[in-house]
Amino acid sequence: MRLRLLLFVAFFFLAPAANSQTATLREVHADGLKTLTEANIVALSGLSAGAQVGRKELQDGADALVRSGLFAKVGYNFNTHNDAVTITFHLEENPHLQVSYDNFPWYSDSELSDAIRKDLPFYDGTLPEAGTVVETVANSLKAFLAAHKASASVEHAVLASPLSDVSLQQFRIEGLTPKIARVEFSDAGLTEDRAVLAHLPEIRGKAYSRMAIDIFLSEAIRPIYQQSGHLRAKIGPAEVRLSGNPTQKLPEEIPVFIPCDPGPVYQWKGVEWSGNAALSSITLTNTLGLKTGDVANGMAVEGGWDLVRAAYGHLGYLDAKVNAKAIYEEQAHTVAYSVAIVEGPQYRFNAMVITGMSLAAERLIQEAWTQKPGDVFDGKLFEQLISNLESHRDNIFKGLPVHYETVGHFLQTDPTKGTVDALLDFK
Question: What DSSP letter does each residue of 204-273 carry, written as one string?
Fold first, then answer.
């Protein structure tokens, strides 16, 4: 995290305070606040009205705000009057991440949040990426566990959410290992689904973790709904339903209940393209491979966008972007898409750079690559080359003994020249 401390210092203690170099702090103000209050700033800075302060104390207060992690910018200025000083902080708040309590199954989120607010009254379920406030939350959770006779450390990390395009500030217990005893769904159809039953061992009997459950829902449950046209199915969040005396030893077997609402089945209505020049709308629609009136298979839709990008890569448009927006008609239960294409530059092949191979093996790879410098680069051919190097080595090396485990590959483009270098690294 990059923080800049902007100092606007004009520290002039007027007589008679000039000789003492300190003054009574009368007021603390702040501007630029969005989620915090001036009272919060007073608490975070460690400054308090009525205290004797000098340059060091004011600077220490600003430093404390920086270390909190809550602010991208911290600046201040102050003035004195009648042997008293007023300080104003100029602040820019950092963006906050949603907090996730990963493996605290015995307690509700509200219980944990209330415990945290005893130390951070302004806590609202979100935190910055790092800073002293994050450490304070970790310590608050550790103290809460200790008060409930559970000795464990609390770790934290910023992780991507498997269910949405956001990052989470995750807190998890180290030292306690509750297990997922069973998994139940509100949708009875899932309970009997063969694919679900095949995937359940991935989490059942394993360590309880919200992140693990969310990954399971994203990778195992969501595709089942998507394939059957339930494009707006509501899945989770998972719930823990414990019974028994909460004052006794924490249970190690955790039952998990997952509410699921499949919603309606949607039919495919079509797609409208814009921004495409290298490929016609008819070609793009055929590439997508979906027919009007069919059940809208969400996985096929997502795969279709990949096919469109691959079609552009086949023509050298390696930077092509497919911006798809779904348009739902709830009464008819249909879905159409408005797709804006940004084709970007067309690239031509410049050179292939190979590392980690013998000269003989490198020569065979170069011979297998049919494109010459100046040819429109074919992304499909490059993918075929990588596939052969990874899974069909004899197609390339024709019996020559080679020894490598992985093939690193990267396309280094130069948009200004419209050229691309293919980089291969064998290890």
Answer: TTSBP-HHHHHHHIIIIIHHHHHHTT-TT-EE---EE---S-TTSPPPSEEEEEE-EE--PPPEEEEEEE
